[in-house]
From TrEMBL:
Alphabetical list of Pfam families matching this protein: ABM
Residue ranges crossing the lipid bilayer per the database entry: 143-163, 175-198
Stretches assigned to the ABM domain: 8-81
Keyword set, alphabetical order: Membrane, Monooxygenase, Oxidoreductase, Transmembrane, Transmembrane helix
Single Gene Ontology MF annotation: monooxygenase activity
Keyword field contains Nuclease: no
Species, as recorded: Microbacterium koreense
The protein, known as: Antibiotic biosynthesis monooxygenase
InterPro entries the UniProt entry points to: ABM_dom (IPR007138), ABM_predict (IPR038762), Dimeric_a/b-barrel (IPR011008)
Domain of life: Bacteria
SUPFAM superfamilies reported for this sequence: Dimeric alpha+beta barrel
Chain intervals for the UniProt region annotation (Disordered): 108-135
Length: 206
C-alpha cells in the first residue's frame, strides 16, 4: 500500500433530491450514516442542503484510509441503501479528498448533522441549511502548515542534538530520521490541533 493511501479520506457527494420526498430523504440519509458507522475505519459524516427550497443536497463521510473506505463503498449494505433511494435521490457528482485538503475542510463538514441525530418530531427541519464550506485559500493552508511545522521541527532538532553522535551522521540519514519521526506527528496531532485553533481565520471570507 502506498503511503498516501494511509491518510484519512473524505468523500463529498452532491445529490438532487425530489422536493416532495424531503422527509423520506432525511430518514434515508440517517440510515446511510448509521450503516456506515458500523464499518471499521468510519470517522464521521454529515449532510446539508445548499439552501432553502433547493433540491441540491450534499453528503460527506470520512474513513481512516482507502482500504476501510472501499470496504464500505463495495459492501452489499451500501448497495442496498443506494437502491432504496433511487426513487428520489440522484447523484450529480462525487469527489474524494485526502492529504492536506482533508485536514482543512473535512472536520468542518463531518459534524453538520451528527450520526444518529434523527428529528424528534414532525416539526423538525433536519440539518442546518447552509452551503458546504470550501477549503481555505492555498496561502492560508501554507501558513497553517508552516505554523505547525516550524516549532515542531525546531523542537525535534533541539532534542535530537542530545543524541550522542547524531551531528556526525550523514545529512541524508539525519533528514530521514527526522522526517520519519515528524510525519506521523504532524499528520495525526500537530496539524489537526493547529487547524482547529485557526478555524475562525481559515473559514473567514473576504
Amino acid at each position: 500500500m502506498a503511503p498516501h493511501d494511509l491518510h484519512p479520506i473524505t468523500v463529498a457527494i452532491e445529490r438532487r433530491i425530489d422536493p416532495s420526498a424531503a422527509a423520506e430523504a432525511m430518514d434515508w440519509m440517517h440510515t446511510g450514516t448509521e450503516l456506515a458507522g458500523g464499518f471499521d475505519g468510519f470517522l464521521g459524516s454529515g449532510w446539508v442542503r445548499s439552501g432553502e427550497g433547493s433540491d441540491l443536497w450534499y453528503m460527506l463521510y470520512r474513513f481512516r484510509d482507502i482500504t476501510t473506505l472501499e470496504s464500505w463503498e463495495q459492501s452489499p449494505e451500501r448497495s442496498s441503501w443506494l437502491a432504496a433511494g433511487r426513487g428520489f435521490a440522484h447523484e450529480v457528482r462525487s469527489e474524494r479528498r485526502t492529504g492536506i485538503e482533508g485536514w482543512f475542510d473535512a472536520p468542518r463538514a463531518t459534524h453538520v448533522e451528527p450520526s444518529g441525530s434523527r428529528p424528534t418530531d414532525d416539526t423538525a427541519t433536519g440539518p442546518v441549511q447552509q452551503p458546504v464550506p470550501a477549503a481555505p485559500p492555498r496561502w492560508k493552508q501554507a501558513v497553517t502548515i508552516w505554523l505547525g511545522f516550524f516549532p515542531t521541527n525546531l523542537l525535534a532538532s533541539w532534542l535530537l542534538g542530545y543524541v550522542p553522535g547524531f551531528d556526525e551522521w550523514p545529512l541524508v540519514g539525519r533528514i530521514l530520521l527526522t522526517t520519519v519521526l515528524l510525519t506521523p506527528l504532524m499528520t495525526y496531532a500537530i496539524l489537526p490541533f493547529v487547524t482547529r485553533m485557526l478555524r475562525p481565520w481559515l473559514q473567514r471570507r473576504r
